[in-house]
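Submission sheet (multi-component)
Chains listed below:
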Amino acid sequence: MAFLRIILLRVLTTLVTLAGVAVIVFFVIRVVPGNPIAMMLPPGATEDDIARLSALYGLDKPMVTQFGIWLAGVMQGDFGTSITTRQPVLGLVLGRLPATLELSIMALVMAVILGGSAALIGTRGRGTRTEGAIDVANGMALSVPDFLWGLVLMLVFGVLLPVFHISGRVTPSLDLPFTTGFYLFESLIRLRFDLWADLVAHMFMPALALAIPLAAIIGQLLKQSLKETMNLDYVTLARTKGYGETHVILREALRNAALPTLTLVGVQFTFLIGGTVIIERLFSYEGLGNMAIDAVINRDLPLIQGIVILFAVIFTAVNLIVDLLYAVLNPRLRHA
Amino acid sequence: MSFLSIRNLSVRLKNGPPLLRRVSLDVAAGEVRGLVGESGAGKSMIGKAVLGILPPSVQITEGEILLDGTDLLRLSPRESRRRIGASCALIPQDPLTALNPSHRIGPQITNRLVDILGWTRAAADARAIDLLAEVQISDPARVLRSYPHELSGGMRQRILIASAFAAEPKLIVADEPTTALDVTVQKQILRLIAGMQARHGTALLFVTHDLGVVSKVCQKLSVLYSGLVLEDSTVTDFFTAPRHAYSAALLAATPKYTDPDAGLQPVPDAVIGAVRAEVDSFDRKAAHG
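Outcome: structure written.
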């Protein structure tokens, strides 16, 4: 019963958050300068043309009325029609979503592997030069933002040592058999490892650029809490049982030390998803972020709204997943 | 031949003051030796050195720790860890922090039997049930499935005691095992440790600052001050005729239940001064080789 109440409460707060996001994004993009009609008509269009086009898109009505119309549509799953492409926003946005999700998850996996290994190696060699080297690398990784890492990677692995593709999601000339948008996942299911390799070769650099700063944060925080955990009594007791250092770190300390890191990773992962906007642009990766920038440039109001709402849904979903994981890892929370 | 024999063990903080000053002591098989002294006297440090869990900030500068005749300090870290794991165990001070909060009780008792000593899982599980019954825990099967936070402090200390005896070690280091417990529970736990020790014939190094505990549990004792062994004698001799003035002062400072109005008797300043002088003269001699 308690569990059901928590879920209900969660859904309710999520709805409030989404409503807030909807209101803010709707009015903010209408208050900032620039309007879609000006982008659609050639310079020198008559007042009459502008008025007619505005009426066609409902932009002549008061802002509150526009909001009411849009919200009523959203309630029925209709997010409006994109002004630039004249296609339903929902279809456009959902079509791009898998690309961004795959990129973000790939980046997250990379960050956890890189940051986790750094933390483990640093803890294993604490007090030695190894730990110092890891701290220095962490500091460097953290002080450079993701898009700069993107440029650096492009120069190194795209130009000097061309092993990865620097743009796009997949080589355009390839024949794609996919029925879903999750190319990377589906290529594995279909055992098309050639396509999988091509997708990874495209995705590797943008994902790594997104992963490096997060990896540094994970590395630093996890190492810190691992080192604290390694001084606790139950770890000392495990040492007296004849276990070696590596076993003690992995089996006794890691799970408890990972808890504070997990909370932070949840928050940072949403930042990472935000980072996809610029990184996708940089690597011409056809995801949501790239679409968002186009939508803003073209003042495609319905599309911007759709994308922002979708990002908000993703953020709340990530937070929910983190909370659930936390309960799984921490037995003390399970019965609460 | 003693099972544990410590010879001239000196430990110091790296680039800092000495913590143990040429400590020598023996614990024979099946014998209980108390280590007594004030806070900071180095009694816990001896137990940690024996078990190979000294903090990284301290280093052993000289001496031998002979376990069954083999000097642990001459072995590779891996080999000494293996020997300690196979023949020694620790009963820690604070039962609330000595169990891993994210593992169930069962594996915390049985894993070492399986991983280190090569038992089968079934044999280890059966052993855990027997042990919990021996430390008077009712419904052992349920307790083995529990997480530490579901159990009381006294219960957890019983589990830690059971766990220490699990592999039939030759030597157990008990590091103030009753200090963190309620007074009412202390007595039960003490009786439990003494009973288990007698039944299993385990040698016990009992770190405590409570002379009452020593008189109940130990046969021998070492009195420490500032890392220096002041007196090494049998418990009978110590309580009837302490040889060192500091020992006598410690005895006099122990509150007596028979005379509750007597008030607390601190160790006299003159005695402390004399002991400090003894420590200083030891350091001077050590400095001149």
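Remark: Chain A touches chain B through 23 residues (CB under 8 Å).
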